[in-house]
C-alpha cells in the first residue's frame, strides 16, 4: 500500500469575524480542512461563502479570530509578522484574479522580482516555459493578452518553487478559451512539480478537474467530494 500523503495544512475550528461599526460579520464559522502534498483542490462556493477568507488565512495574509492552522509541524497562528513574511516568501505562491504585473518590466523581469529574493528559485525563462510562454519573455504586459498575463503571474508564483499554490479566481476575468489555457498551466505545474494547489472558484464546471472539491456555504464547509475520474481542462465548457 502506498504511504498516505503528507498533510501540508491542517486547519481546525477556524472562525473569522469582521467588525463593521456595530455590525459583526462572520466570514468563517468553524472550518476544518486538510490539504495534502501534491493535491489539487477546488474551493467552490458563491460570493460571501468564506472562500477568500479561508485562502488568505492559509496563506498568512490574514489571521483567524479563533482556531488553528498548522503548516507541517508549525502553528501559523502563533507566528509574528516577520515569521509570516518569511513563510509567505519561502513556501507559498499566490495567484489572484488580477495579474499585478509591473507595466514597465518585461515578463522575465516581473518574475525576476520574486526570484531575486527566493532561496532556490528557477530561472525566469524556465518558469515561463512551464506555462508555455518562453518566447514571450521579453514582452511587456501591454504586449500580452489577458490570459498570457495571468500565465506570467502563475510563472512568477511558481518560480520560487513554493510548496503550495493558492489561487483566488484565476480565471475570473478571462473568457472560456483563455481560462482553459490558464487551468492547463496550473494542472501541469501540479502534476509535473508536485506542487499542492488550492483554487477558489464560483464556477462549478472547473471543479471537475480537481482531485477534491470542498464546497463552502455561509462560512462553513457544506460538502467534500473526491473526483474519481478527473476531467482535463480542455474538456471543460462553461
Largest sheet at a glance? Answer: 6 strands, mixed
Question: What's the helix count?
Answer: 6
List the strand order in the largest sheet.
6-7-8-3-9-10
Radius of gyration: 18 Å
Q: DSSP strand (E) fraction?
A: 25-35%
- Rounded to the nearest angstrom, the distance between the terminal CA atoms is 38 Å
Task: Tell me the CATH topology of the domain at 37-59 and 91-229.
Answer: Rossmann fold
- Catalogue the unreliable spans: none
CATH superfamily of the domain at 37-59 and 91-229: P-loop containing nucleotide triphosphate hydrolases
**Can you give the mean pLDDT?**
92
Record field, number of beta strands: 10
Q: What is the general shape?
A: globular
Classified by CATH, the class of the domain at 37-59 and 91-229 is Alpha Beta
Description:
- This protein has a domain at 37-59 and 91-229: Rossmann fold (3-Layer(aba) Sandwich).
- It is built from six helices and ten strands; from the N terminus they run E-E-E-H-E-E-H-E-H-H-H-E-H-E-E-E.
- It has helices at 51-58, 81-91, 107-115, 124-130, 146-158, 176-193; strands at 7-20, 23-36, 40-44, 66-71, 74-75, 92-95, 164-168, 196-201, 212-217, 220-226.
- Strands 6-7-8-3-9-10 form a six-stranded mixed beta sheet, with helices on both faces. Strands 2-1-4-5 form a four-stranded antiparallel beta sheet, with helices on one face.
- Helix 3 (107-115) crosses helix 4 (124-130), helix 4 packs across helix 5 (146-158) and helix 5 runs parallel beside helix 6.
- The mean pLDDT is 92.
Question: SSE layout and pairings?
Answer:
Blueprint (H helix, E strand, L loop, with lengths): L6 E14 L2 E14 L3 E5 L6 H8 L7 E6 L2 E2 L5 H11 E4 L11 H9 L8 H7 L15 H13 L5 E5 L7 H18 L2 E6 L10 E6 L2 E7 L12
Parallel strand pairs: 3-8, 3-9, 6-7, 7-8
Antiparallel strand pairs: 1-2, 1-4, 4-5, 9-10
